Amino acid sequence: MHKATATAAALALPMGLVLAATAAHAGASDGPQDTKVLHAQLQPMNETNATGTSTVELRGTTMTVQIHATGLAPGLPHAQHLHVGGENICPTGLKADENGDGFVSTVEGTPYYGPEAVSLTAEGGVGAENKLDMENMPVADENGKLEYERTFEVSEDIAKRVLHGKAVVVQRGIGAEDTREYDFNAAGPSELDGSLPAQATHPASCGALAAAPERGMETGFGGTSGTPVAWMIGLGAALVTVAGAVAVAGRHLLRVRA
Ligand SMILES: [Cu+2]
Q1: How far, in Å, is the centroid of ligand 1 from the Cα of 130?
Q2: Which residues pair with 58 in a beta bridge?
Q3: Can you give the three-state secondary structure of 89-147, one letter per residue?
């Protein structure tokens, strides 16, 4: 009796793992409360040296945004946003420079990446209305590096559009390395807010968000060979084999005992 219970327990463990693995995988692509991850590679705009990566995690309407950027104008605040509602692309070079002043302004870039939907402030509100809240925007360090992470709530509409890859990360603020301030003389006043230099609002970097590979890939299980799905099926099969072996061993044990 004791042995049979032990065998059942031994069987239950691997089978439970198989079910858990299956459930974990199903969870990665269904259900409204599962965590989805998107990535963006930030590329320079307006001939800056600003590059970086951004990760957006969504669990329902709870969004966590991370940005790791370098090459930004040092010691200055950088307005940054998720832009939604354009073509979900970053204009390259000066092709978006409609007025030919040598800069792609935020407005000139809007048909490409869309208007501001989420303001990636360090503190305070994150709505579109906070888009020029320079007081609360993150500041690049003395080397032009900017690390950002914040978790906040977004609307269902924004969550859905971001999930479907309809969002672009844009960091603003182009300044000379040595001035440590945005300069009205360099590019005039901003078309968004005349009290700000255009340098403060011109895009510095831009990257369209796209769905990340599933988590199995990131932790190295998937690697370059096979998808996480294939890996999960492989794991399931392996565990079923183990379960089978235990079952056979268990039966053998019972027979010997009997
Ligand atoms: Cu922006």
Answers
A1: 11
A2: 36, 63
A3: CCCCCCCCCCCCCCCCCHHHHHHHHCCEEEECCCCCCCCHHHCCCHHHCCECCCCCCEE
How high is the pLDDT of residue 180? 84
83 has which bridge partners? 116, 168
Would you give the distance in Å from CA 168 to the centre of its chain? 10
Distance from residue 221's CA to the centre of ligand 1 (Å): 36
State which amino acid sits at residue 123.
E
Q: Would you state the pLDDT for residue 256?
A: 41
Domain residue extents for the chain: 2-29+215-257, 35-211
CA–CA distance, 89 with 166 (Å, rounded to integer): 9
Residue 7: CB partners within 8 Å, gap ≥ 6? 246, 247, 250, 251, 253, 254
What CATH code would you report for 35-211? 2.60.40.200
Question: What is the C-alpha separation between 76 and 174, in angstroms, rounded?
Answer: 9
157 CA to centre of ligand 1 in angstroms: 19
The confidence score (pLDDT) of residue 6 equals: 46
Distance of CA 82 to the CA centre of its chain: 11
Which helix (H) or strand (E) segment is 54 a member of? strand 51-59
Confidence (pLDDT) at 32: 52
Q: Tell how far the Cα of 59 is from the centroid of ligand 1, in angstroms.
A: 23
Max distance between CA atoms of the chain, in angstroms, equals: 94
Low-confidence ranges of the chain (pLDDT < 50): 1, 3-30, 216-234, 240-242, 244-258
SS3 content of the chain, % helix, strand, coil (to 5): 35, 25, 40
pTM: 0.71
Cα–ligand 1 centroid distance for 80 (angstroms): 5
